[in-house]
Amino acid sequence: MLPMSHPLQRIPGLLALVVVLMLCAVILLAKADLDRMERIALSRHGPETALIVGRWRDMLKELAALDERQKIERVNGYFNQLARWRQDIDIWQQHDYWATPLELMAKREGDCEDFSIAKYMTLLLAGVDVHKMRITYVKARLGGNYGNVTQAHMVLAYYPTPNADPLILDNMISEVRPASQREDLNPVFGFNSEGLWVSGGSAPAINNPAARLSRWRDLLRRMTADGLG
Amino acid sequence: MSLFKQLWLAIILLLALAFGSSLIVSSLAAQRYLQQQLYLKNVDNAAALALSLGQQGVDDVLLELTLAAQFDTGHYELIELVSPDGTVLIRREDRQPLADAPSWLPGVLPLEVEPGVAQVQQGWQQLGTLTVRSHSRFAYRALWDSTRLLALMFLMTMIGGGLLGSYLLRRIIRPLNEVVEQAEAIGQRRFVTLPEPGTLEFKRLVSAMNALSKRIRSALQQEASRLNQWQKDTHTDSLTGLLSREPFMRTLDAALDSDDINAAGSFALVRVASLTRLNQTYGRKATDGVLADIGAALNTIVSRHSRWAAARLNGSDFALMAPRATDPRELVEEMQSLMLEVLAAHSMHTDTALPAVATLFTHEDTPSTLLTRLDSTLVPAAQAGSSDINITFAGDIQMQPVREQMAHWKGVLQKAFLEDRFSLASFPVLDSGGQLLHVEAPVRLLEDNQQLAAATFLPWINRLEMSGDLDQRVIEMALTAAEDAAAPLAVNLSVGALVEPAFLHWLDQALSTAGKAAGKLWLEVPEAMAFRHFDAFKLLTRHASRYGCQVGIEHGGHQLADIGQLHEIGLDYFKVDAAFIRDIDSNAGNQTLLRTLCTVGHSIGVTVIAEGVRSTAEWQQLRELGFDGATGPAISALADDSSAR
User: Fold this and answer.
1) What's the fold here for domain B239-392?
2) Cβ–Cβ of B123/A187 closer than 8 Å?
3) For position A19, what pLDDT does the model report?
4) Separation of alpha carbons B138 and B94, rounded Å
5) CA B159 to chain centre
6) What gap in Å lies between CA B496 and CA B472, rounded to an integer?
7) Which of chain A's residues have a Cβ under 8 Å away from the Cβ of B83?
8) Could you say which of A166, A188, A192 has the minimum Cβ distance to residue B119?
9) For chain B, which residues make up each domain, given as ranges?
10) CB B119 to CB A134 under 8 A?
11) Contact between chains at A189 and B54 (C-beta distance less than 8 A)
12) For the residues B610-630, what does the mean pLDDT come to?
């Protein structure tokens, strides 16, 4: 052991400490930071939105005590009540804008995918396994089972088990029904954030610039920026 | 280390640094870019494949076929479908080794690409999770190719940069080489000037050194002209501009005593018979005018030949000493007719006779025997009052026709060259401390069992144009002798050494093969010859000094005005002619002259040596004047004494 350590000899140690601290900071920031989300809501959208986010957080706390089926009912109902359906072009003055949950809460109106995403993220935060959820593109027949007008639509599907009949969370109808009872919906493609997320982590594995080219990944990135990791 | 090596090292180092950093940057950039692109491809392909699988209503066989087709036709490393319960349904994997890039590359620059993952579902039913990973072989090849290209560029840039740098450096330091040469020249007391180079730093250096050289040169030229004026004042008759009796007699004595071609020649004496009557008839002023014109006329003859001298011996006797002239009659006729012309120009040619006499002199004569011989012939003629010309000879020597003599000497000399009959004599030259400075080695010829002095046969060597051959023979002999001689050996070179173009080339060869002996060879050239062929002499000096050979001037002091040119040739030593040394202990005028000469010589690094020292009194005086060395009979005696002791 050295009797005295020269200031210069301490530099590597200091550097190591700084690196460790920075890594910790990065990891903490990458975690869902709902306090930050609330702060952003306040500063960006005003006290009303902050209030909504606060309520939404209260609901998240309450969800912890519920089983998954109840969680799904609750989240579906919450967002269906909170926001009104409106087309992207009217809300955002652009086609097919994918809003983050915070933006949905701020505007209190959103397109079908905005509802699906908000529900998906909320359930994910409430502890529902990512494998059990699919955000699904569906071809929807309007006017009930026998209508002839079809429309591109998006819903969230919940699979209690991999081979089960999924439950559908739809903003068009208030109640959650199994897929077998939704003959008006014809699924096309389902996805979730599996594979994008490093196992166990909650940040996108690839934070590369090219990710913005994908609407889904761009949304994930924006959600992370909002504090919703 | 030379500048060129340092430049190359610097270029290699700089480029290696630049190359290394650009390689790292480009490799990392390429690695990142390739990783991104591969990842995007993985993700997109996974999504597209999953989407297409979901649309087909597939059974297991169709599923496997679709994935196999995709795998076999695409560039994939892995395609895997895992069912929701975790069992692997289909797995296709390429395990080919990396063939397009060295196997160490993945270790150095790993491409870590996340696979693309997508969910496959049919209707609301989950089929499984699809994992797609593209092959990175091509990426590695691209990475390897770009690295190699960069390395090639680096190599070419390095070579190109090095060559360009060398060329530029050579251009830049060309003036430096010249500056170094100038500095070396000044170090050797050759005060040369250079045209100023364009480079600012060198320009200042060169102009500073040029200023030094110019200052030395002008100081030297001033001294030289001062010396020249001094010599004129003390040695010449103020009326005629000819040498006074005393200096003339010393010059004659030195010539007779010398061991070279100047020890033999013709001597003419012409008397203005009735000078007293002319004085009475025309007045002193008019007569003085005639005498001055005669002096000027005789000086024009003298100035055309080196070492010739003319004097007014007493009131009416005019003497002309012409070393190397073999026909006394021709000489005296020219002299007499010149004087007659002057008289005619003053319309006095009818009032006086010009009795004339001439003789041949050799180095066996002394001034007094010579003058006695002439006087005894002139007196009767003068008394007769005629302008006759008499030729007199010492003893029974009769003048042979030149052509016969030429033929005789040609035979003798050719035989001498063939039979190697030349040898070198040896006379010591001591420095002021009495140590042996070098040995003078004049050439001798063995003929009829007799050693002939150089003075006897050298005129014929020159006439027969064999001087270059003799010089070569002498240098060869001297180099052989110098090999085991304790002191350096000084040999006399003739005009051939200066004017024959092939001689320098021969000298280079002889000296370069002589090794150490070259450093013990001193070459000396007569003053008159050195200044007449000054550029050739300069060249000889430069060539000889390369081999450590010293070059000097002998029989110097007659052309003091030319000494000003010596500043840039790097002369090693200067031997002062015996004419100035004679009776130096009692000649105050010459003492001042020689003291100044020594000072001037020392200022340009020249060793000053006295020739023909005859007495220890002379030697004592010379040392006080600042001479560095001396030779002559008294010196030889001293050396014998000290070696006997």
Assistant:
1) Alpha-Beta Plaits (3.30.70)
2) yes
3) 57
4) 14
5) 36
6) 10
7) 162
8) A192
9) 3-160, 239-392, 402-644
10) yes
11) yes
12) 92
Q: ipTM for the complex?
A: 0.70
In B500-559, where does DSSP find H-type helix? 501-514, 527-532, 534-546
Of A187, A209, A210, the CB nearest to B121: A187
Q: Is A174 exposed, middle or buried (0-12, 13-18, 19+ CB in 10 A)?
A: exposed
Residues of A with Cβ-Cβ distance to B115 under 8 angstroms: 195
pTM of the model: 0.56
**To 5 degrees, how large is the angle CA B227–CA B231–CA B232?**
120
Mean of all residue pLDDT scores within chain B:
85
B497-516 pLDDT, tens digit each: 788 888 889 999 988 888 88
CATH class of B3-160: alpha beta
Identify the closest residue of chain A to B53 by CA–CA distance.
A189
Mean predicted confidence (pLDDT) in B159-184: 84
- Which residue numbers of B have CB closer than 8 Å to A's CBs? 36, 39-40, 43, 46-47, 50-51, 54-55, 83-85, 114-119, 121, 123-126, 129, 131
Query: Given B39, B46, B47, which is nearest A206 (Cβ)?
Result: B39
Residue type, B370: L
CB within 8 Å of B592: residues ≥ 6 apart: B230
CATH fold, domain B402-644, is: TIM Barrel (3.20.20)
From the CA of B81, how many Å to the nearest CA of chain A?
14
HSE-up (13 A, CA, CB side) for residue A195: 23
Reported CATH class of domain A32-225:
alpha beta
Tell me the residue ranges of DSSP E strands in B384-426: 389-392, 422-424
Q: Among partner residues A163, A179, A191, which is closest to B84 by beta-carbon distance?
A: A163
pLDDT confidence band for A5 (50 / 70 / 90): very low
Using a 10 angstrom Cβ sphere, with 0-12 exposed, 13-18 middle and 19 or more buried, the burial of residue B210 is middle
The mean-pLDDT minimum among A131-145, B31-45, B66-80, B461-475 falls in: A131-145
Are A186 and A139 in contact by the 8 Å Cβ rule? The answer is yes
DSSP 8-state symbol, B236: B
